[in-house]
Every structure is written in structure tokens, then in C-alpha cells.
């Protein structure tokens, strides 16, 4: 390859070394379709050899894009949000896109305006929405009216166009079958946030599991939660005070499970000898808890990456859609056989 002397490397230098036009180099950097694989490889090799990095401002002007996508979230689980952020970055970096993060409170009456202001101020090429914002009708209507592209993670609506989702109902039903196989019949459930689609799916899977085992649904064993440690702790205080406490508790997510385990241990209960606890998500904390938490693996980082990839494909005018990702059961030490002598208050 030729040697470049003096000053910063320019796109013209990359084009000359690769033996292609500047327009072709631009198309490669913008990930446009219909570029031959060998041509793309030559341009990327030339850019790497010359230590060339596209100028974001010039790139935006030339492509009429901001090369920015925004992740909009309202979720009490910091661990979940960080996993999604990492996944979105995994997709943005090779595409030479930047990412901004915009926290929004669904309970705020002006949350739709806050998102609209973000779009107007920063002009992102698209948004990634996490639940429960994925199902906020007012927000979706506003984005559609403004022609804003967006991808959804775990949307409740079946007609969502872009993003990533997981069959959460089937996952919980399968986990319930495992818990029942251990002999448990009094299985409680701490639900998630009322506006979150996952709350409905996970409750439905719980009820499916009971029905399949011939166990009657007991309202006293189902407690509202918020997908948070604090709500898990509060729910555990209530459930463990029942005259006939549950022998197993299904938490709607791992943060909630951690709160349950904290209270149970504080009451002198041994997990899983006295009570089994299982969750959903398989966040890093699930392996750090003691005992390690039995849970459903929802690949949150992969879902963030896939949602971003689908959004970027749509931005480039390529075919994109909603991708279903697989789940896995993580059977660890927080669940075990039903106690031979269930506790009574």
C-alpha cells in the first residue's frame, strides 16, 4: 500500500490506496447495500492501514443522517438496563454509530413530550424502546405521527414491527413444570410492574404451570411487585406470614428474587431447604447471590444488540423485523425438593 505523508488521513487517501472511488469508500463506511464483498474488504483494509476514522460531522452532512440512535428506558432494574445498553453498543460500534441514553418515567404526564424534545434536539436516526415504554400507546402514536423509526424490546403488542422478543410465557410454564417435579404444590408468585407486558406473560406462564399440574390458582399466593428488590422484600414479608406459607416463590425478575431471599434468610429460613426461590432474566447477580439463583435466562444483552441491528437495517433501507430469541432454564441452588414438613405459622 502507498505511504501517506503529512497531515491527517483523508477519505481521498483511502480511496487511492484501495483503488476505488471516494463514493465507494463512503458507501462502505455508511454500510450501504450492493457493495461487493471484495471491494468492502479492500476499503476496510486500507482504512485500517492508514488509521483512518470517518469524520462524524462530514458523514452526517453527506448521508443526511445523524449516525446516532437513542435508547429510551423506564425500568427499575439497573442491571437489566446496563445489559441492554451493552448490547446496543455491540451493534453500534461496528456500524460506526453513536448511542445516547434517555431515561423517561412513564408515570410522568409529560413523558411523551420529553421523548419528542429529545428527537427534535438530537435528531437521532431512530429509537430503541425498552418495556414498559414499548407498549405506551400515546408514545407510539406520537412517534408514528412524526415518522420516527423505532425498535422495541419485548413489546406486548403482536404487531410490533422491529426489535427482539422472547416467549416468556412458555419459559415460565417450563420452569413451573420443573418446580412441580420437585414436589411443590404451594407455589407463590410476585408479579412485576402493572404496565409491563412481561408481567402479564409471566403471570400467564405461572397459571399455565399450575393448570398443567392440576393445582388450583390461589389469589393469596399472588402478590403485586415492581420488578425491584424492595418490592420483592415487601412481598416476602407478606407471603411468609401466611398461615400456610408457600414452599416455593416465583419472582417476576431476579431483582425481586434477591429481595425475597434477603427477607427469607433474615427470618432464619434456609434456601432451598425451607423455601425455594426462582426468578427470571439471569442477570449477573443471579450467579452472585448465595445460594445461586435458579432463573430463566433472558439474553438481555443479545436482545439489545438484535434490536439495534434491526433498527440499523431499517435505517439503511434493508429488510428488518421482529426477532424471537431463545430462552434457557438455569437450574441452580436456590431451588430444591419440597420440605418434608412444610412450615405453619
From TrEMBL:
- Where does the HTH lacI-type domain lie? 9-63
The cross-references to InterPro entries, in alphabetical order and at most eight, read:
HTH_LacI, LacI/GalR-like_sensor, Lambda_DNA-bd_dom_sf, Peripla_BP_I
Domain of life of the source: Bacteria
Q: Does the keyword Transcription apply?
A: yes
Q: Which SUPFAM superfamilies does the entry mention?
A: lambda repressor-like DNA-binding domains (SSF47413), Periplasmic binding protein-like I (SSF53822)
Q: Which GO terms describe its molecular function?
A: DNA binding
Q: Which UniProt keywords apply?
A: DNA-binding, Transcription, Transcription regulation
Could you tell me what this protein is called?
A: LacI family DNA-binding transcriptional regulator
Amino acid at each position: 500500500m502507498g505511504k501517506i505523508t503529512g497531515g491527517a488521513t483523508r477519505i481521498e487517501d483511502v480511496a487511492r490506496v484501495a483503488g476505488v472511488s471516494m463514493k465507494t469508500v463512503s458507501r462502505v463506511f455508511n454500510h450501504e447495500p450492493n457493495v461487493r464483498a471484495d471491494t468492502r474488504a479492500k476499503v476496510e483494509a486500507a482504512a485500517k492501514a492508514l488509521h483512518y476514522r470517518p469524520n462524524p460531522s462530514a458523514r452526517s452532512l453527506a448521508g443526511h443522517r445523524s449516525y446516532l440512535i437513542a435508547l429510551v428506558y423506564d425500568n427499575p432494574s439497573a442491571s437489566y438496563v446496563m445489559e441492554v445498553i451493552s448490547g446496543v453498543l455491540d451493534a453500534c460500534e461496528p456500524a460506526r454509530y453513536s448511542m445516547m441514553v434517555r431515561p423517561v418515567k412513564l408515570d410522568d404526564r409529560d413523558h411523551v413530550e420529553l421523548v419528542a424534545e429529545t428527537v427534535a434536539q438530537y435528531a437521532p436516526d431512530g429509537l430503541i424502546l425498552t418495556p414498559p415504554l414499548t407498549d405506551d400507546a400515546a408514545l407510539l402514536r406520537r412517534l408514528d405521527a412524526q415518522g420516527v423509526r423505532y425498535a422495541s424490546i419485548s413489546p406486548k403488542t403482536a404487531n410490533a414491527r422491529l426489535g427482539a422478543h422472547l416467549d416468556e410465557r412458555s419459559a415460565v410454564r417450563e420452569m413451573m413444570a420443573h418446580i412441580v417435579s420437585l414436589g411443590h404444590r404451594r407455589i407463590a408468585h410476585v408479579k412485576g410492574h402493572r404496565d409491563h407486558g412481561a408481567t402479564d406473560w409471566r403471570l400467564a406462564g405461572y397459571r399455565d404451570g399450575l393448570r398443567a399440574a392440576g393445582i388450583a390458582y390461589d389469589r393469596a399466593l399472588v402478590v403485586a411487585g415492581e420488578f425491584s428488590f424492595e418490592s420483592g422484600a415487601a412481598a416476602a414479608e407478606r407471603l411468609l406470614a401466611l398461615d400456610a406459607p408457600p414452599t416455593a416463590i416465583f419472582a417476576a425478575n431476579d431483582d425481586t428474587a434477591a429481595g425475597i431471599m434477603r427477607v427469607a434468610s433474615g427470618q432464619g429460613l434456609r434456601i432451598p431447604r425451607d423455601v425455594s426461590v426462582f426468578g427470571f432474566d439471569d442477570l449477573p447477580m443471579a450467579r452472585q447471590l448465595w445460594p445461586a439463583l435458579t432463573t430463566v435466562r433472558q439474553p438481555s444483552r443479545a436482545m439489545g444488540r438484535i434490536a439495534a441491528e434491526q433498527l440499523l437495517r431499517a435505517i439503511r433501507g434493508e429488510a428488518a423485523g421482529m426477532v424471537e430469541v431463545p430462552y434457557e432454564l438455569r437450574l441452580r441452588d436456590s431451588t430444591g425438593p419440597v420440605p418434608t414438613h412444610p412450615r405453619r405459622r
